[in-house]
């Protein structure tokens, strides 16, 4: 149900706008990579304008995703550290219970972790 609402409210209008943009921008446009000699045919590529627009959009999405992933690296590292520490502490608690003879399998006690 939620997927259907997402499709109707976001994806269908987005598809309509992208199709309209594509149809409206079909003319061939040159893209020159050589900034000092723009007339150089070896470094000039021609494609419809919508190709350049969608390419720039895709490049922006990829660069933004990579930038976000790189800036969140410290948080992922901290989370890994916390998970390792929590797992170590769980094993220590279970080992202490096992040694003291308190692990009788009664309810309310922590789970025994399998290695």
Keywords:
LapA family protein, 2 strands, 115 residues, 3 helices, mainly alpha
Please explain how this structure is put together:
Residues 93-102 have a biased composition (Basic and acidic residues). The chain is mainly alpha-helical and 115 residues long. It has a domain at 2-71. Helix content is 64%, strand content 9%. It is elongated, with a radius of gyration of 29 Å.
Strand content: 5-15%
Number of helices: 3
For the record, give the distance between the C-alpha atoms at the N and C termini, rounded to a whole number. 40 Å
Helix content: 55-70%
SSE topology:
Blueprint: H1 2-24, E1 28-32, E2 44-48, H2 49-71, H3 73-100
Antiparallel strand pairs: 1-2
Task: Summarize the entry for a quick read.
With 115 residues, the chain is mainly alpha-helical.
